[in-house]
Design goal:
One of its GO terms (cellular component) is cytoplasm. The protein is of the alpha+beta class. It is built from 15 helices and seven strands.
């Protein structure tokens, strides 16, 4: 086994066409202060807790079609083994030929968009639970505080303040007052502890087709359609997992494609012809710069639970 600070283990992935790792991996970042994801001088630094142990990875685009990675820690070899999937090498775009003019234009603008997958379900699920019904700013702060306090130091020459996410047994033992201090309400805290207690079963969902895995994940109390989709996008690279119930998504889709706000039902009807690539279409709009999302009314308020 590779030692905690041994390494680096190196791998270069050569793609069959242009590649953009920053575009592929950006959904993995939970805010600018994410202790598990940082960008320094063009290099992406990512930590993870693999079954074999913690890992810090440094990912760099080295050419039009090449990406190199150095990894440190007990989980380095395992992370490197799955690096192509993480970078979206085997993302299947077959059948994706959008007729809708704006989505087709977005596809022409960024034809090299790839959807990667981590294979680490709990690492995608817990921050998604933290993001339920609150602003991104509040959720990102909670993730940063909890991982910084209960995670472990990042192995190797990681940037300052980077941490490895806690294992399931640590999430289970976090006291209720620590969630409270991170402004996480009791409902979300209970869901996190419940998911962590069933971590082994949850991780095994990776072996199922994504649609089946999403159904199984939604059977957990506190895990709904939105949380499941956010998890499936990152852990399984699901190109169809649409985040229904998102505070802004339907408005963005409607404003971009129709020039007006719409609700979730209208968004589902509008994107139905793109199945099984509905989330791919949304990502294309976002990364191409063609998305429009005019703001109406006040921002969602952040309740301060710590004063209660």
């Amino acid at each position: 086994m590779v030692g905690v600070n041994a390494g680096p283990v190196h791998r270069t992935v050569v793609f069959p066409g242009p590649v953009g790792p920053a575009m592929t991996l950006s959904p993995q970042r939970r805010g600018p202060g994410d202790p598990c994801y940082q960008t320094v001088d063009g290099a992406i630094w990512k930590t993870s807790l693999q079954p074999s142990g913690p890992v810090t990875a440094r990912i760099v685009k080295t050419g039009r079609e090449t990406v190199a990675c150095d990894a440190w820690g007990a989980g380095a070899a395992e992370f490197i083994e799955h690096l192509p999937a993480f970078l979206g090498f085997d993302d299947d775009t077959s059948g994706f030929a959008p007729d809708e003019p704006t989505i087709a234009a977005a596809h022409r603008r960024v034809p090299h968009l790839r959807i990667g997958r981590t294979g680490r379900v709990l690492e995608a699920l817990i921050p998604a639970v933290l993001e339920q019904r609150v602003t991104g700013k509040d959720a990102f702060r909670a993730w940063r505080l909890l991982v910084t306090k209960f995670g472990s130091p990042a192995p190797g020459p990681a940037p300052a303040r980077m941490r490895v996410p806690p294992p399931a047994e640590v999430w289970c033992r976090i006291p209720s007052w620590e969630f409270h201090l991170a402004n996480v309400d009791p409902g979300r805290a209970r869901t996190i502890v419940l998911c962590a207690a069933r971590a082994n079963s949850i991780e095994r969902l990776t072996a199922r087709p994504s649609a089946q895995a999403r159904t199984a994940l939604q059977s957990l109390p506190g895990v709904g359609e939105w949380t499941t989709a956010e998890t499936a996008q990152r852990a399984w690279g699901d190109p169809d997992a649409l985040s229904v119930g998102d505070y802004h998504l339907s408005n963005m889709v409607g404003s971009t494609l129709l020039g007006r706000r719409i609700d979730d039902d209208a968004m589902l009807e509008l994107l139905e012809p793109l199945r099984p690539h509905r989330q791919r279409a949304v990502r294309l709009l976002e990364v191409s710069g063609l998305a429009r999302n005019p703001r109406f009314g006040a921002r969602l308020a952040i309740p301060d639970l710590r004063s209660l």
